Each structure stands twice: as C-alpha cells, then as structure tokens.
TrEMBL record:
Predominant cellular place of this UniProt entry's protein: membrane
Protein name: Potassium/proton antiporter
Domain RCK C-terminal residue range list: 395-476
Topology of the protein relative to the lipid bilayer: Multi-pass membrane protein
Taxonomic path: Bacteria, Pseudomonadati, Spirochaetota, Spirochaetia, Spirochaetales
GO cellular component: plasma membrane
Length: 477
C-alpha cells in the first residue's frame, strides 16, 4: 500500500510537469491517473463511495481555497474587485439560470433538475485558471480579474447547488427565508473571516514558539476554526476561509515565510489528492451514455450562458469587446463542479450517477478545449506582456518573532534611473540594506562600488513601511 501511494505521488508530480509543458490544466493529468488506476482500466482500486468523497473533498477545498485567497495581493484585489466579485456572484447566478433554462427546454429535463445541473457547473476553476495565467504572461488587469473571480465564485455555486437539492428533496423553506439565509451566508462568511483573521493575528503574535512547525500547525487550526465557526452559525465557511486567507496574506505575522511555503505545499498535495480521488470515482464506460448531453451543456455554457452573464455583469466596468471575449473564454471548469456533482449523488437524488457522469465529462471537455486555447487567444488578441525571467534563487527573512523589517525583492526595470549607477551613488535611505543581487541567474554579493544593471533582482532588507517607497525609488514610478 505504501509503495502504491508513493508511486501515485511521483506519477502525479511527473504528470504536472507534462501538463505544464503542453499547456494543459493540471487537473487533467491527476484525474487521468485516478481513472487509470481505477476500476475501469487497471482495476487496482475500486472506489464508488460518493458520500466519503464529498466529505473528504469538502475538507480539502477548505485549504485549497484559503491558499487561493492568501496569494491575492491587496493591490491586485482592489484593482479589479468590482468586476471580479460581480462575476463571482451575479455572473454565476446568471450563468446557472440561463444554462438551466436551456437544458430544460433543449434536453427535456425537469426544471429543478436542470437548474441543479447548471448550478453545479456554473463556477470556474481557480487551480486551472491560476496555472494558465501564471504560465502565460497575460495582461495584469485580465489575469487578476480571472484569478479573483475563479477564487471567489465557488461559494455562490455551492449555495445554489445546496438550494436546488433542498428544493428537489422538498426540504426547502420559504423564499424569504432562503434569501435571508443566502445574504447571511455571504455577510456572515465575510464577518467571521475577518474575526478569524484578527484572532489568528493575535495568537500568532503571542505564541513565541521556537519551532517553525508550531506556526504551521497553528495556521491549520486557525483555518479549521474559521470554517467550523461558520458552519456552526450557518454562514458560508468557504467565504470565511477565502477572505481570512486574503487578509492574512496581506498582513505581517511571525513565521509568515515558513507558513506561506507550508500552505503552498499542502494546497498542492490536496489538489493532487482531490483530483485523483475524483478520477477514482469516475467510471469511463458510462460516458458513452452521456456524451451528447455533456457536449450540449459545454457548448451552451461556452457560447451562450457564460458570454451573456459576463456581458451583463461587466456593463458598469471598463472592458473592451475583445477583453470581454477573452474573459468569457476564461470560464474554465474544474474541481469544484466535480465535487458538487457528488452532492446529489450522496443525497440519493442521483442514484444512477447520471449527473455526476455528465458533469465529469463536461468538465473534462472544458479543460481540454478552453484550457489549451486560452493562452493562444491571449496571444491572438495581443493581451500578453513580456515575460519576466524568474530568479532561480530566493533569499528570504524567516522570523519567529514580530518584526518591523522584511526582505523585499525588487526587480530593476529597463527604464530605471538606477541603471549603470554604483550602489553608493543611489542615495538610498540609511535604513535600507541591499543584501544580495541576482543577475543572469547568479548571486552577486554587493559592495558600494557594485553597478546596478537592468533586470537585476535586488534583495533589500528594509522596514516594512518603506518597501513600497523603495520600489518607487528604484524604478522611478
């Protein structure tokens, strides 16, 4: 068993490398591994427990979505918060409504059944979108819009899915109670997320532990605390952990570097575990019975529902027609719709597995079609920017206590006034210390006579309050 798990992990990492090379969303490789080792191919693992999948997936998504919020910078969020959050709420609702009505009339399904299917597949996938926007140097405005929308739209899809399951099972309360519940889930989630952020900051600043590992474990506890309190108070835990992650990611606290690396690792591990588990739950031999419905749903989603919802949602915001077309095509489906497809399966509404099979195959088609062409569309519309070479070295300040200084990484732009000037003549604040320079992939130990070159990456020990000022001074912007 241990050998089998080790091989799965190694194969998953290799699959991620292959997926990146061919521009495919990571989830395709992971899901394929799950399918291959599952009952329909190699029959190494037989797994058909939808209820267990739902329970495990819900826990994994807590940390995946928290980490997504943790990576969003305040500047990135503020620049596109309006359109992104509108798409993540109104856009998802419109997409679900339009798609549900078309499914009802085109395929002849019951209206509630149709709206349930459309709600499940209405959200875009953060993991797939993040991978594509990071691997392609897409314009910051568009990349940020897609990133934040994809990270923030899952709660709306979850709420809609649960609502239509309740209606289908005749456990739905009055519309007024439903609307109030919806408002509380959003507002309560944000409020609890903020309170959990403040509590986490207090605990982190007063822990005073000598072990970095304790801070990592503490963060896990804080995340689960936020979700648990939200669940107990009937607010939306996903919204709570997303905003808690956003606020913590933009705050300074002890051992933040260590915690950040830890969060990245567990999010990657949980993504792999989630996709492989979903692959195991799939039975490809059943796709032959649903491919027509899945193809219709994907076509309507890509060319009718998503475009209409996006154009309506972005009316108040300044996006060109080409930018709207690009954002429309960025509605890639992924893990959350497949996880949500286990909800009706676990509740007994989908005993035949029809909804799960349709959603699974539709998501797979979306990843193949949109995931492989979004980067090409960005190039065709001239929405790509010059790619900045990533430094092979990272120099960080790991602090287990509260600190008013940080190690800032500043890239010297080609139009910087500091180019071809010695460090001693740059008139830097006396509180700033350039500890190292990365140039052409090599680390340069700076002296006062060291001349700064374009595209140098400077690692500067600076007071936290002066980091933004430092970037402005070095690049003259």
């Amino acid at each position: 068993m241990v050998l089998f798990l080790s091989l799965l992990i190694i194969l998953s990492i290799l699959a991620s490398k292959v997926s990146s090379r061919f521009g495919l969303p990571l989830l395709i490789g992971f899901i394929l591994i799950g399918i291959i080792v599952g009952s329909d191919v190699l029959n190494l693992v037989y797994f058909d427990n939808a209820d267990l999948t739902k329970r495990v997936a819900d826990i994994l998504l807590i940390f995946i979505i928290f980490e997504g919020g943790f990576r969003i910078t305040r500047g990135e969020f503020r620049s596109v918060a309006g359109p992104s959050l509108t798409l993540a709420t109104l856009g998802v609702a419109l997409t679900s409504g339009i798609l549900g009505l078309i499914i009802h009339f085109a395929l002849g399904f019951d209206l509630i059944y149709s709206l349930l299917i459309s709600s499940i597949i209405s959200s875009t996938d953060a993991a797939a979108v993040f991978m594509i926007t990071r691997s392609n140097p897409i314009k910051s405005k568009l990349a940020s819009t897609l990133n934040i929308e994809s990270a923030a739209n899952d709660p709306m899809a979850i709420i809609l899915t649960v609502t239509f399951i309740q209606i289908a099972m005749q456990s739905f309360r009055s519309p007024l109670i439903a609307i109030l519940s919806l408002l509380w889930q959003f507002a309560g989630g944000i409020i609890i997320g903020y309170l959990a952020f403040r509590i986490s900051m207090f605990v982190f600043h007063h822990l005073n532990s000598e072990s970095r590992g304790n801070y990592n474990i503490l963060m896990l506890g804080c995340i689960l605390f936020a979700y648990g309190i939200s669940d107990a108070l009937k607010a939306n835990g996903i919204i709570a952990v997303f905003f808690m992650g956003y606020w913590l990611g933009n705050a300074n606290f002890p051992a933040k570097r260590s915690v950040s690396g830890f969060l990245e690792s567990i999010a990657a591990m949980f993504n792999i575990a989630l996709f492989i588990m979903l692959g195991l739950l799939a039975f490809p031999h059943r796709f032959a019975a649903v491919w027509k419905e899945a193809l219709i749903i994907v076509a309507v989603m890509m060319f009718v529902a998503r475009p209409f919802a996006l154009f309506i949602s972005t009316i108040p915001f300044k996006y060109s027609a080409k930018e709207k077309v690009f954002l429309m095509w960025g509605g890639i489906k992924g893990a959350v719709p497949i996880v949500l497809a286990t909800y009706p399966l676990a509740s007994g509404l989908d005993s035949s597995g029809f909804i799960f099979d349709v959603i699974f195959f539709a998501v797979f088609l979306s990843c193949i079609i949109q995931g492989t062409t979004l980067g090409l569309l960005a190039k065709a519309f001239s929405f790509t920017e010059r790619r900045r070479l990533e430094s092979p070295h990272t120099i960080e300040l790991h602090s287990l206590r509260s600190s008013n200084v940080e190690m800032a990484e500043v890239r010297v732009d080609e139009n910087s006034p500091c180019i071809d000037r010695p460090i001693s003549e740059m008139n830097l604040d006396k509180d700033l210390l350039i500890s190292s320079i990365v140039r052409d992939g090599q680390i340069v130990l700076p002296k006062g006579s060291t001349v700064v070159k374009a595209n140098d990456i400077l690692y500067v020990l600076a007071p936290s309050a002066k980091v933004n000022e430092l970037a402005v001074k070095l690049n003259g912007v």
